Description:
Elements: H1 2-15, E1 21-28, E2 33-35, E3 39-46, E4 52-61, E5 69-77, E6 83-91, E7 113-124, E8 129-137, E9 143-145, E10 147-156
Antiparallel strand pairs: 1-10, 2-9, 3-8, 4-7, 4-10, 5-6, 5-8
Amino acid sequence: MKKALLLGLLIALSSCVDDNLVFEENIEIPNEEWSVAEKAILETEIADTLSSHNFLINVRNTERYPYRNLYVFVKTIFPNGKSSKDTVGIILADATGRWLGHGSGYLNSSSHLTNTIMYQYNRKFPLSGNYRFEIEQAMRTDTLVGIKNIGLRIEKTNN
């Protein structure tokens, strides 16, 4: 009985694996206070230059965050040292102030909401090698409160 239960659990867990996931990392923001001088730095090795990929930004926030949107700069440093920079706008709440992210229960000081937005669609990596991504907040405030994590997800598309 225990072996059958363990086998069933292993099968269920293996079916949860995302075959399209290439990279995902989230950086914790200390004390939920994101200074304009602090960058989230993420690095990954890319070998596949033939497949197309989607690039998504993950944001976890609390109700302490005072705005309905968040602007970030995403700098990509390619293996050859060249770089590109994107400005990404992320909507965290609707016009009435209702949070759009998903989480459990009501948002309170000890919980958070997670938002994932796509900022690049169906893109190919031009080179194989080590890629560095730097995410920095681009709001008109030196320190943002209520941001718990910021991160990047890269997934292979089905094209």
